[in-house]
Amino acid sequence: MCFSVVGALMAIFMAILCLVLVFCFGFVILRWNEVRYMMKGLPPGTMGWPVFGETTEFLKQGPNFMKIHRARYGSFFKSHILGCPTIVSMDPELNRYILMNEAKGLVPGYPQSMLDILGKCNIAAVHGSTHKYMRGALLSIISPALIRDQLLPKIDEFMKTHLSDWDNKVINIQDKTKEMAFLSSLKQIAGMESSSISQPFMTEFFKLVLGTLSLPIDFPGTNYSRGLQARNNIISILNELLEERRASQDTHLDMLGCLMGRDENRYKLSHEEIIDLIITIIYSGYETVSTTSMMAVKYLYDHPKVLDEIRKEHFAIRDRKKPEDPIDCNDLKSMRFTRAVIFETSRLATIVNGVLRKTTHDMELNGYLIPKGWRIYVYTREINYDPFLYHDPLTFNPWRWLGNSLESHSHFLIFGGGTRQCPGKELGIAEISTFLHYFVTRYRWEEVGGDELMKFPRVEAPNGLHIRVSSYSN
């Protein structure tokens, strides 16, 4: 009996010793790699622990992680934070160069989970001539002419209905703007048929969104597994819709009608490309439109002078129109202050922390050697708060965007840059502007209180953001 206990203890001791040795060996190898990389001319920084790198610290500390590393290593440093060796760049001019030079070997480097769930034909996954072709197809259905003639009337009609019954209610503005962003996009894509597929589509879509930002482990119960299943269910819904459209002789004035109109559209997309493009359109606009709308409501409530100014702009528009008249493109052009509010909301809330690129070969960048296959994280959050670029950067001040051409500055990367600049920028601004028009002219509101806001890794209110709404005429 005594021997068996001793044997068991020895086995446990040996197992622990083996783990310690493996860990120490891995640590030594990692540190040797750092020395070897430094000899090759890699940027300063640290790779963290074996296997995990600095991912835990990054997710736990969020923006503070970046501030600490920037203070220690500068605006261009190496780390291991996204499941692979990563270069973090916070330099405005260098970030612009990285985003403008995809042809030189700086291609998209998005997480595998996102690429798997959005599909191999989505715009984030393709590059080169394929990306140019897919982007052309997307731009052909959100051109200024189509926004004016087809999309804006749908957006206006939807927003009027969506905001029609908020009087004397306590609402979760986070849920309402999420629902708004999804349903508005679906209506632009599928027109009249959107109402019949909206609920099953929306249920699966929310699962898909969670799956795109998860570890790519296809195990039952994981967000990744649920995301893949949600993608399959969405494909089934879209397959049925496409089959019905092909069997019909009707003309459809919506995005799907344009994509399927082979005689009119010079971009002849395959069935799979159409499906991936539809998923990408909804996904790319969903979080930016919903979160910017939610945070604009928050900032307007916190800054009464800004609210007064934006109300003046929108009531001036209503004074020029009959009560039932919709918003048109001329009205959008006149919403200069509203556009400034949207930009300032996006800057201060930092809806998008940055974008990822990947090197296709060893290359020199900023005087350092960047190995093939490394990710480059173009981190724009700190740029948004740089006092040398934005005076008093932590203050919500939409007036900073009026008259000084900040939108054209090289450090303006809120919507990306280069050939990957968000193609739906103006469409998204039109949606948010129309939402704000009907919201501020119809209602006044107050926060119920007690709602927590998180700004990293994504901007969200974990328990919702609740407001009590009443009619503005009361």
TrEMBL record:
One of its GO terms (biological process) is brassinosteroid biosynthetic process. Heme binds at residue 422. The lineage of its organism: Eukaryota, Viridiplantae, Streptophyta, Embryophyta, Tracheophyta. It is found in: Membrane. Pfam families: p450. This is Cytochrome P450. GO terms for molecular function: heme binding; iron ion binding; monooxygenase activity; oxidoreductase activity, acting on paired donors, with incorporation or reduction of molecular oxygen. It is a single-pass membrane protein. Its cofactor is heme. Coiled coil: none annotated. Keywords: Heme, Iron, Membrane, Metal-binding, Monooxygenase, Oxidoreductase, Transmembrane, Transmembrane helix. Belongs to the cytochrome P450 family. The chain crosses the membrane at residues 6-30. GO terms for cellular component: membrane.
